[in-house]
Amino acid sequence: MLIENNGARPVSAAPASCPDNNGTLPSCAGLAVPYVPFQQNNPQKYSQSEALSNGTLFPGLNLPFRLAVDGSSLPTTPLAELQALEFVVLELGIYLDTHKDDAEAFKLFKQFSAMEKAAKAAYESKYGPITKEAAAAGDSYQWLSDPWPWNFAQNEVK
Amino acid sequence: MFHYEKKLQFPVKIATPNPKLAAFIISQYGGPDGELGASMRYLSQRYSMPYAEAKGLLTDIGTEELGHMEMVAAVVHQLTRNLTDEDIQKNPAFAPYFVDHTTGVYPTAASGFPWTAGSIQSTGDVIADLTEDLAAEQKARLTYDNILRLSDDPDVNNVIRFLREREIVHFQRFGECLRLCKEKMDARNVYLTNPAFDKIQPRG
């Protein structure tokens, strides 16, 4: 039901008769308006590192171009781990915008949000501020310190 | 309001500069179906949305697109680092961009047309805007498909595959949002009024 926190394989919550990539349309859908089937509540989920690597938390929505069955390779850096946690929070937030009553997803959203907050604080204390708030908490003004996100180096050293 | 976080949404680490590829990829920064247009489209459309789900989704996806804009810019920046005059001279694909912008990041289509709001819409109509958003996600998706056809750099393709998949997830969410909005509109004739403008909703 819930993804595990340590990068383990996803555990499916979808009943075999109704895989999560099959949404539902109303039995008599109206004419002349677009319909996209709803992703069903509590869909199957990847672990956070697989989610970032595939560009989605949901295996049911993972539809790659041509032969790219595997996700992107990610650096094993503290920054990439933080990015993976943040990505799950973002993906769940967008999911909840159209599935606000999915209690399981909301629970996971809270859980990952707390994990991301802790991971961000730990990262910032070691590598420097990501937010102005953290910059203000330092002994001197470290906001201007390298590396900046678009520089090759941010992904090089950390 | 917006706060900046000094990190990217997804790691961008391009080992080998390749200005030719940068000249294609710049299209997803400032081209007709690029990330600048996507964020401006969604962040503009949200104001006229009468329903909370649409306000929330356009805000969240519009904000994510700002992060994608930064990722595409980072790809272009890293692909054009440490170049020499000679690198430019032997690169007819990148030279026209270079003569105008050196290695600055500028919002333009790969074809050279600068970014224009003419490639986006904000109609003030729930169904028209959300249907445009479905199309916009498809157009961005196919542009990423085409970049993957042109690029054999695994570092670049890592990033492009991620961005492409986001378009598919966003398409799904916009489709769901359209369904949620439609449920709040007239059941027999969804086009009876524009709930973003018409104050009186006739009962059918």
- Average residue pLDDT of chain B: 96
Note the quaternary state here.
heterodimer
CATH topology of chain B: Ferritin
The ordered string of helix (H) and strand (E) elements of chain A is HHHHH
Q: What's the count of strands of chain B? A: 0
Radius of gyration of chain A: 19 Å
Biggest sheet overview of chain A: none
What share of residues are in beta strands of chain A? under 5%
How far the N terminus sits from the C terminus of chain A, by CA atoms, comes to 33 Å
Shape-level CATH architecture of chain B: Up-down Bundle
What is the general shape of chain A? Answer: elongated
Tally of helical runs of chain A: 5
Main beta sheet strand tally, sense and closure of chain B: none
| Discrete helix count of chain B | 8
Radius of gyration from the alpha-carbon trace of chain B, in angstroms: 19 Å
Structural class of chain B: mainly alpha
Binned, the helix content of chain A reads 25-40%
Contiguous uncertain segments of 5+ residues of chain A: 1-14
CATH superfamily of chain B: Ferritin, core subunit, four-helix bundle
Q: TL;DR of this structure?
A:
Chain A is mostly helical and 158 residues long. Chain A is 40% helix and 0% strand. Chain A has five helices and no strands.
